[in-house]
């Protein structure tokens, strides 16, 4: 028979997945706004960030209550502490979506330039990493989580390549400096989303396998 404690654990899990869905939507909308220069969508991402923050506070309070009242051990303890880690990363992912949206609004005011395919590739990579990390967390799938860690190298490489390309383009355009700075910052936020997705993947391995693989989970 399922105890009240394990019902609370399941409720915590659902709260985390609910927050993850909000974060995924924020990133998806921010990326769409960036590529399509959709100011209205960028504004929506910024406005809805408070919803992610509210869920974070709710989960923080709920998980603290479980720790204090139930004093869990072993896997239950790993799960609750892992959720507390994941919720921080999800909130920061929401913040990065806001950062991307703010850069989109600024870039929309500048003259059009040819599309940078590397930026689209980084958008796709960051979204894929986030989606896979959430799936791994939901399934408690350590192997899938390790896949996310291995993808982080691609995101890092794309960020560096975009930086170099943007700096090269800067000297040929009157508005080059302003465009370059905002493009670089948007790319940095995308790369950062990949880093935070990797953190969630590391947390998944910690919960599932009981081992800490921070900064080294691609070798799991």
Strand and helix layout:
Layout: H1 4-36, H2 39-70, H3 74-107, H4 117-139, H5 142-170, H6 176-209
Structure notes:
- The relative contact order is 0.14.
- Helix 2 (39-70) packs antiparallel against helix 3 and helix 4 (117-139) runs antiparallel to helix 5.
- The protein has one domain: Methane Monooxygenase Hydroxylase, Chain G, domain 1 (Up-down Bundle), CATH 1.20.58.220.
- The protein is mostly helical and 220 residues long.
- The longest helix has 34 residues, at 74-107.
- The protein has helices at residues 4-36, 39-70, 74-107, 117-139, 142-170, 176-209.
- It is built from 6 helices and no strands.
In brief, what are we looking at here?
With 220 residues, the protein is mostly helical. 84% of the residues lie in helices and 0% in strands.
